[in-house]
Design goal:
It is a single chain. This protein is of the alpha/beta class. It folds into 2 domains: 1-90 and 172-178 and 201-275, P-loop containing nucleotide triphosphate hydrolases (Rossmann fold, 3-Layer(aba) Sandwich), CATH 3.40.50; 97-169, no CATH class. It has 9 helices and 11 strands. It has helices at residues 46-53, 80-86, 108-118, 125-135, 141-145, 154-166, 184-201, 212-218, 245-252; strands at 5-14, 21-31, 35-39, 62-64, 67-70, 73-74, 91-94, 172-176, 204-209, 221-226, 229-235. A 6-stranded mixed sheet has the order 7-8-9-3-10-11, sandwiched between helices. Strands 1, 2, 4, 5 and 6 form a 5-stranded antiparallel sheet that branches. Strand 5 (67-70) and strand 6 (73-74) form a beta hairpin. Helix 3 crosses helix 4 and helix 4 (125-135) packs across helix 6.
Amino acid sequence: MSPLLSVENLRIAFPSRQGPVEVVRGVSFSLGRERLGIVGESGSGKSQTGRAILGLTPVSGTATADRLEFDGVDLRNASTRQWRKLRGARMSMVMQDPKFSLNPVMTIGRQLMEAVKLHGGKSEAHDKSIAMLEAVQIRDPERVMAAYPHELSGGMGQRAMIAMMLVTEPDLLIADEPTSALDVTVQIEVLRILDRLVTERGMGLIFISHDLRLVSTFCDRVLVMYAGRVVEELDARRMNEATHPYTRGLLNCLPTITGDSRPLPVLARDDAWLE
């Protein structure tokens, strides 16, 4: 079976006074109907990789790839019309900060229903929106439907954003730190929803996170990124068997309840990782 998404030699660069600077350098991977985790420090290129897949690289940047294909569609040469059919309906992305992703002058309900209506579900838009808000554990969905983004807490805004991206039941979801602002019980419920969509509907999920423990228990495979490169790929459940010194360093820096970790571990770096 051919993969849902194929990425080969993805490179993203932004201009600077010293010339173009590559923030993603030669990233390659494939995604089936599975949960793929991408981990690494801030600035390692995780979010830019996700944005490039959806054609959302900022205008100032340039994204190139030898291959960037989604379910038989060459995304490198996709027209505006093709992108309109793909984004929202078949490909979605949960951004890291919902406050910058939600329209401040539109109610949550209008934004949720807009996503459904744009992709052929006008008659069921309200009911599907309410059901999805309930699914992410929003207790009074009718009130939230009538609310504006600034009237919601950070965690509730995050849940509304997740509901908006899932309401169309896409084939590919890129989730950038989707549970970072949620408490543990809501986090578990959101992960259950994502897991159900992957297992029952065959959705492909790219799960971007800093939480190595969460990724190791939730995902199927993991890509470890450092300075714009993938330095290691491994089975999520064998994370503790990682061999690359960067991955080992990240694991060693995780806090533990028992034992004394003094002096605090420091992540050692090697210039060879940049080559």
